[in-house]
Design brief:
- The complex is a heterodimer of chains A (192) and B (192).
- Chain A folds into two domains: 97 residues, RNA polymerase sigma factor, region 2, helix turn helix motif (Rna Polymerase Sigma Factor, Chain: A, Orthogonal Bundle), CATH 1.10.1740; 58 residues, Orthogonal Bundle (Arc Repressor Mutant, subunit A).
- Helix content of chain A is 77%, strand content 0%.
- Chain A has ten helices and no strands.
- The N terminus of chain A is likely disordered.
- With 192 residues, chain B is mainly alpha-helical.
- Chain B folds into two domains: 88 residues, no CATH class; 95 residues, no CATH class.
- Chain B is built from eight helices and no strands.
- At the A-B interface, helix 3, helix 4, helix 6, helix 7 and helix 8 of A face helix 1, helix 3 and helix 4 of B.
Chain lengths: 192, 192
């Protein structure tokens, strides 16, 4: 499984992999992990900030997916279902974790290694935006992370958050308004 | 552009509704121009700069690198094995339900047989006790409530008569002291 399975090479659809896993084919689940691990990890990372927390959330999410695969009815895509799981896991981890401490350390370490001023500026830029996004109410934060930074469709976000498409758009609208106010407030009070 | 227009256009941009890449660049420039001249929107410059970055570079989730991805699948597999020593829950739940029903039936049958065997043992004890401890038993029977006497008769197969002269204590061979003591204890409990 260390060599990533390319979906286009394997010839298996997600639905086929799910069926094979249900039938007891462990390798089929390996392929599911290989296909979706980046989406699952990235969602957790955007939500949690630190690499360690995101890694933990992604691992737990795949274990839960494996345990609950019989409950997957295929009404949404497998990716959407997995992202919903990791979102819930991340929320649980976030509830008992410290806010955002890990992000600075992680990115600082990476940028020090890179030794690039440009990378450092990007890191600071991401950190400032992340802090602003992180202060949004939970629903708005989730919508921004899934819609804007995970580039999902309204429908996908609605399925993951179990909202209507209209509600997703409303949350995003409110989030933009809040972000504008909060980020301006941060500037007025000195950039943190 | 006023602040309301800025907020509306920023929302559309974040919502992915800015059209093609060229239109998106134009809109970003327009928004940055407003932010540069407006104190109320100046804080959004960071967000605009992040949105301006090429895809991937503006993502809030950093890439942990290939070494991480190389071990991810294996760690998921090990975690599943560790946390799920039992087999993955199967959709064939009815097999489990049927097995439970059969087990219940076996336990029930065994319990009924055991109770019947215990009754036989008690009945045997009644008859043997009559020889081993006739005086004590006779005294206890005399003071026992009526319903206990009925139970005694049923257990020992004495019939409906409680008359000692009618053969209440039949003469049997093969006395079992342990069984007799057990019966005495039971009788004391019933008559206390």
């Amino acid at each position: 499984m260390e060599t990533a399975v390319q979906p286009e090479r394997s010839g298996n659809t997600d639905a086929r992999l799910v069926e094979r896993t249900r039938a007891g084919d462990v390798r089929a689940f390996d392929e599911i992990v290989a296909r979706h691990k980046r989406a699952v990890y990235s969602t957790a990372r955007r939500l949690l900030g630190s690499h360690e927390d995101a890694d933990e959330a992604a691992q737990i999410a795949f274990v839960r997916a494996w345990q609950a695969l019989d409950g997957f009815r295929g009404e949404s895509s497998l990716r959407t279902w997995l992202v919903r799981i990791v979102l819930n896991v991340s929320k649980s981890l976030r509830a008992r974790a410290r806010p955002l401490d890990g992000l600075e350390g992680q990115e600082q370490l990476a940028d020090t290694r890179a030794g690039s001023d440009e990378l450092l500026r990007r890191r600071e830029l991401r950190a400032r935006v992340r802090r602003a996004v992180d202060r949004l109410p939970p629903r708005q934060r989730e919508v921004v992370i899934l819609k804007v930074f995970s580039e999902m469709t309204h429908r996908e976000v609605a399925e993951i958050l179990e909202l209507s498409v209209g509600a997703v758009k409303a949350h995003l609208h409110q989030a933009v308004s809040n972000l504008r106010r909060r980020m301006t407030g941060a500037v007025a009070g000195g950039r943190d | 552009m006023d602040c309301a227009g800025f907020e509306r256009e920023l929302g559309e941009l974040m919502d992915g509704g800015a059209g093609n890449a060229e239109e998106r660049d134009l809109r970003l420039r327009s928004l940055r121009s407003h932010a540069a001249d407006c104190d109320a929107c100046a804080g959004c410059e960071d967000l605009l700069r992040l949105l301006e970055l090429p895809r991937g570079q503006g993502d809030l989730a950093g890439d942990p690198g290939e070494a991480y991805w190389g071990s991810f699948d294996r760690r998921v597999r090990e975690r599943i094995r560790r946390e799920s020593t039992r087999a993955r829950p199967t959709r064939r739940w009815w097999i489990v339900a049927a097995a439970a029903a059969v087990l219940l039936l076996l336990v029930g049958t065994w319990t009924l047989r055991r109770d019947a065997a215990e009754s036989t043992t008690t009945a045997s004890a009644v008859t043997t006790l009559a020889v081993e401890l006739p005086e004590e038993l006779a005294r206890m029977v005399e003071t026992a409530p009526g319903d206990v006497l009925v139970q005694l008769e049923d257990l020992a197969g004495w019939g409906s008569s409680g008359d000692a002269e009618g053969g209440l204590f039949p003469d049997v061979s093969g006395l079992d002291g342990e069984a007799s003591q057990a019966f005495l204890l039971w009788l004391r409990e019933q008559t206390s």
